[in-house]
Design goal:
By secondary structure, the protein is an alpha/beta fold. The chain is built from 14 helices and 18 strands. The strands form 4 sheets. Strands 10-11-12-9-8-14-15 form a 7-stranded mixed beta sheet, sandwiched between helices. Helix 13 links the parallel strand 14 and strand 15. The two termini are 43 Å apart.
């Protein structure tokens, strides 16, 4: 695994180019962040591979017991197109450390880097048959994985609707274990005491990072009424200065949507927002007449029951809403079928503690956003799925716990 990580570092530029060509990711940030994070993740789990321990159990009867953590077996990983490299590493690295073999299906939109990673793994000495990349469509290649009788667990990252199909296939086949990281409609709560300039930056980062194609995107921004008008002005200015264009241009911050289908889906939601009565503060249109570029889009006067406030758009579209009290903010933040992440912007530790305990989501970020790290478990509540990536939980989910019990005879030391 360490050799695998070294080879990734040696081929950072090639891998970053593949993700830029396939997914429209920023080439500069791919080289600086995305690909280096892949090798860091592999090294993290390489270091964890010899630290997988069971427990010695003190039993209530005349028995001695201990637990063994054993690899589940053959894994099926179905990964999305929005972070092709990051999702590959966070599935493959803990699986290798756990001692599992695997079949990986990258999204049909973004297969290139996965194939290159498999090539580098072979060069690193990973035995044939341990990492197997298959390309194809979800309804054929993905379905084959989920229905296969010899695959022991499926890990899927993608939409909630497809997550349901994965669970159904697992139940109909061999009752294989399933872990799911699904959609989100994450709230960002900005309180009156917040630094307005910083809050505006976080709000825009939360929705425009990776052109909004992020499951944890802060697509619902709730602002307390005392600073609402000031924040709206800041957001308008900052959104209009957000550079959109060629992902190979180092000055660009937002690149094109991944394909025509996603481009048209986002534009359809923008039209829904207009028809339902939300006010378009900025953006709302395609940018240029070539490629799948969309202007950074901010809606104000959004109501909780509007489609743009309920559905995961997966694009650069923010719904901005006003609230009065702490209790109202919590209630509205939780008024969603999703529960992947949430953000809080405040200088008040009491507010931060109360809200972080009250929001039903797997990750809560206080005065920051996208604070994802190898050491920190990540996964959802409610219809955002179950099971954790990253951290030691990310390796334990690919292991079975076996209990081994033997009798103790006539011992005074029970």
């Amino acid at each position: 695994m360490m050799k695998f990580a070294d080879l990734i570092d040696e081929h950072t530029e090639e891998l970053a180019k593949l993700d830029t060509v396939d997914a429209g990711k920023l080439f500069s940030s791919g080289k600086a962040a995305d690909i280096p994070q892949v090798s860091q993740t592999i090294r993290y789990y390489a270091g964890a591979a010899d630290k997988i321990h069971g427990e010695v159990l003190k039993m209530s009867r005349e028995l001695q017991a201990y637990t063994l953590l054993e690899p589940i077996g053959v894994l099926g990983h179905i990964i999305p197109w929005n972070f092709p490299s990051g999702m590959f590493s966070v599935k493959v690295a803990p699986s290798l450390a756990a001692g599992c073999t695997m079949v990986i299906k990258p999204a049909e939109q973004t297969p290139l880097s996965a194939l290159y990673y498999a090539h580098l793994a072979k060069l690193a000495g990973v035995p044939d048959g341990v990492i197997n990349v298959i390309t194809g469509y979800g309804e054929t290649a993905g379905a084959a994985i989920t229905h296969h009788m010899d695959i022991d667990k499926v890990s899927f990252t993608g939409s909630t609707d497809v997550g349901r199909q994965v669970m159904q296939a697992a139940a109909k086949s061999n009752l294989k274990a399933v872990s799911l990281e699904l959609g989100g409609k994450s709230p960002l709560l900005i309180f009156d005491d917040a630094d307005v300039d910083k809050a505006a930056d976080l709000a825009l980062l939360g929705i425009l990072y990776n052109k909004g194609e992020t499951c944890v995107a802060s697509s619902r921004v709730f602002v307390q009424e005392g600073i609402y008008d000031e924040l709206v002005k800041k957001l308008e200015v900052k959104a209009k200065s957000w550079a959109v264009g060629d992902p190979f241009d180092p000055n660009v911050r937002q690149r094109p949507q991944v394909d025509k289908q996603q481009f048209e889906k986002v534009l359809t939601y923008i039209e829904h927002g207009k028809r339902e009565g939300a006010t378009l503060l900025t953006g709302g249109k395609p940018l240029g007449n070539k490629g799948y570029y969309i202007e950074p889009t901010v809606f104000t006067d959004v109501k909780d029951d509007m489609l743009i406030a309920k559905d995961e758009i997966f694009g650069p579209v923010m719904s901005l809403m006003k609230f009065k009290t702490l209790e109202e903010a919590i209630q509205r933040a939780n008024n969603t079928k999703y529960g992947l992440a949430g953000g809080i912007v405040t200088k008040n530790i009491d507010i931060a503690n109360t809200v972080s305990r009250s929001i039903r989501a797997g990750s809560i970020w206080i005065n920051c956003y996208f604070a994802i790290d190898n050491d920190c478990p990540f996964g959802g509540y409610k219809m955002s799925g179950f099971g954790k990536d990253w951290g030691m939980q990310g390796i334990h989910k690919y292991m079975h716990t076996k209990s081994v019990v033997t009798p103790i005879y006539n011992s005074p030391w029970l």
